[in-house]
Amino acid sequence: MKRKANVSSDVAPSNTQRDLSPGTGGVTTTSGAISGATSGANSGATSGTTSDDINLQNPPPPCSNPLVTPLLTDMYQLSMGLAYYRASTHQKSSTFELFFRKPPFSGEFCVFAGLDQVMSHLQNFKFSESQLLYIKELLPEADEAFINYLRNLSCSSLTVTSVLPGSLVFPRVPLITVSGPLGLCQLLETTLLTLINYPTLIATNATRFRLASGPSPTLLEFGLRRAQGPDGGYSASKYAILGGFDGTSNVTAGWMERGLKVSGTMAHSYVMSFSGWDGYCGDRAFADKAKEIRDKERAGTNEGELRAFIEYAQCFPNGFLALIDTYDTLGGVYNFCCVAVAMGMNGLKPVGVRLDSGDLAYLSRECRRIFDLFKATYPSLTFWDGLQVVASNDINEGVLVALGKQDHCITAYGIGTNLVTCQAQPALGCVYKLVEVEGEPRIKLSQDIEKVLIPGRKQCYRLIGSDGSPLLDLMQMEDETPPTPGARILARHPFEEQKRCFVTPTLVVPLTTVVWKDGRSQIPYPTIEGGRMRRKKEVEACREDHLRAHNPTPYKVSVSDGLYKFLHRIWLEEAPVVELS
Ligand SMILES: Nc1ncnc2c1ncn2[C@@H]1O[C@H](COP(=O)(O)OP(=O)(O)OP(=O)(O)O)[C@@H](O)[C@H]1O
Ligand SMILES: O=P(O)(O)OC[C@H]1O[C@H](OP(=O)(O)OP(=O)(O)O)[C@H](O)[C@@H]1O
Ligand SMILES: O=C(O)c1cccnc1
Ligand SMILES: [Mg+2]
């Protein structure tokens, strides 16, 4: 992120963070923390490899969710499809744009995500015979000719342009533009919206959590159990990582996306399940050592918890991370430290603790203070400074901001409900609107000025200033000359006449790329890691005041003078003049 004047923080997790996975021994992770160390090697197009690695000739794979077919749509798309067909307008050339009008979370931006599944849908778009039978049942008006038309539909006649995943995007700029036969473009509306709205919302939410936490802590996504169903949970895990999270507890996400890092700690049930030493069959000397240290350092800590930790440490000698708040958090830290000393005496390194209730800042400081006490007593053990303090329990963006203003020693956050359900704003309002038919721009008027459509096919550019940060996004008509670096142009607010500025960009970046044409993908299949890297770069380049959590400065999304005049001429032509008498 850039401050108004200069560069500031980095959103990459620091390279001193540790892997929290049992069995991986708290290994130091690299900046992306999607090392795949715990979830196997990368494999294929959906892995965490960079997009350059992928052979362009590989067609996009099937959608990850088998529910995504041409039938994942609203009834009215099929009804309109039939009506276009009957009116013989279904083959008219058309252009639709997918965009949002208002950013979520009272913010100014979104992080675009979900294009991977859109590419898969375009590639695999085909009604099955049983779906066609069902459509006949549903739409008795449909004759065999229409069913045959649906039967032969594929996306080979479409041209699709899009911004790329991980891009910072702003209101009204078309994120995806679909050009092709009217009937087919219409049939894609609902599916494209459902494939983009939630991924973009969750990637944006995750980005905001990352901005709120700062670059250092490890962010782990823990939301599967609270997500809106299996697909909500899976999408949340994937796109939270695109948005800057480092790992997920969701095993299916790791299995499906082999580059994603899967990790976790332990639950209260595990700690609660132990109550004494009956049936203990582990290493007696190890248990006796831990108990001896406990009796010396803090007699009276919970015995069942101590046993639970001793058992776990033996099972995961390189991945001991203890949940310490089941009975009494401070007693829990002592129990952890005693087991840690016993491990250290066997040449092993514990990973750390998790706090799941109470004042997380205060308790994290207490953890560090007690680690320091042990460090003073057992200075030959070298792991004390590197121990993790993981915090969880209903953490949201506000809690991260609040914790950032307090003194705390938290090194990692486990975040579920508020992240995956996007509790602060549960839906993104991307829309998909017709802007042109047979080369004729179309406008939709509204009493609500924000809802007036900007007509026609557009070219969109990001104009970059001399400090490398974006100045504004500019939309212009397709046939206008693109802006050029060093040349001064007039940029106008689309609706408010007095809001305009002259801008001289240092760099002009086209916002969209042709991603689908002539029946095939024109880009390497988008990867989570590719989107993650683009998001990081774009967030770093953007001025901090556009991204901040509260009262962000509006980012200018402008139109060229030519598009402004065109929009307002069409608006006047189409708006009825009322007669008063
Ligand atoms: N130091 C802090 N500053 C700001 N918010 C915090 C701090 N510590 C914890 N929180 C947040 O305050 C809320 C505390 O919630 P709540 O009172 O329900 O939990 P608790 O009583 O500590 O634990 P539980 O009920 O789960 O046993 C959570 O959202 C938590 O993330
Ligand atoms: O708080 P979240 O951000 O959703 O993070 C995930 C939560 O899920 C687990 O709780 P669990 O399901 O055991 O429930 P509880 O903590 O509410 O008792 C875990 O201990 C976290 O508290
Ligand atoms: O691994 C964890 O600690 C975890 C995972 C999911 C939800 N709560 C906690
Ligand atoms: Mg909880």
From TrEMBL:
<comment type="pathway">
    <text>Cofactor biosynthesis; NAD(+) biosynthesis; nicotinate D-ribonucleotide from nicotinate: step 1/1.</text>
</comment>
<dbReference type="Pfam" id="PF17956">
    <property type="entry name" value="NAPRTase_C"/>
</dbReference>
<dbReference type="GO" id="GO:0005829">
    <property type="term" value="C:cytosol"/>
</dbReference>
<dbReference type="InterPro" id="IPR013785">
    <property type="entry name" value="Aldolase_TIM"/>
</dbReference>
<keyword id="KW-0436">Ligase</keyword>
<feature type="domain" description="Nicotinate phosphoribosyltransferase N-terminal">
    <location>
        <begin position="71"/>
        <end position="197"/>
    </location>
</feature>
<protein>
    <recommendedName>
        <fullName>Nicotinate phosphoribosyltransferase</fullName>
        <ecNumber>6.3.4.21</ecNumber>
    </recommendedName>
</protein>
<feature type="domain" description="Nicotinate phosphoribosyltransferase C-terminal">
    <location>
        <begin position="457"/>
        <end position="566"/>
    </location>
</feature>
<keyword id="KW-0808">Transferase</keyword>
<keyword id="KW-0597">Phosphoprotein</keyword>
<dbReference type="Pfam" id="PF17767">
    <property type="entry name" value="NAPRTase_N"/>
</dbReference>
<feature type="compositionally biased region" description="Polar residues">
    <location>
        <begin position="1"/>
        <end position="19"/>
    </location>
</feature>
<dbReference type="InterPro" id="IPR041619">
    <property type="entry name" value="NAPRTase_C"/>
</dbReference>
<feature type="compositionally biased region" description="Low complexity">
    <location>
        <begin position="27"/>
        <end position="51"/>
    </location>
</feature>
<dbReference type="GO" id="GO:0034355">
    <property type="term" value="P:NAD+ biosynthetic process via the salvage pathway"/>
</dbReference>
<dbReference type="InterPro" id="IPR040727">
    <property type="entry name" value="NAPRTase_N"/>
</dbReference>
<dbReference type="GO" id="GO:0016740">
    <property type="term" value="F:transferase activity"/>
</dbReference>
<comment type="similarity">
    <text>Belongs to the NAPRTase family.</text>
</comment>
<dbReference type="GO" id="GO:0004516">
    <property type="term" value="F:nicotinate phosphoribosyltransferase activity"/>
</dbReference>
<keyword id="KW-0662">Pyridine nucleotide biosynthesis</keyword>
<dbReference type="InterPro" id="IPR006405">
    <property type="entry name" value="Nic_PRibTrfase_pncB"/>
</dbReference>
<comment type="function">
    <text>Catalyzes the first step in the biosynthesis of NAD from nicotinic acid, the ATP-dependent synthesis of beta-nicotinate D-ribonucleotide from nicotinate and 5-phospho-D-ribose 1-phosphate. Helps prevent cellular oxidative stress via its role in NAD biosynthesis.</text>
</comment>
<dbReference type="InterPro" id="IPR036068">
    <property type="entry name" value="Nicotinate_pribotase-like_C"/>
</dbReference>
<feature type="region of interest" description="Disordered">
    <location>
        <begin position="1"/>
        <end position="64"/>
    </location>
</feature>
<dbReference type="InterPro" id="IPR007229">
    <property type="entry name" value="Nic_PRibTrfase-Fam"/>
</dbReference>
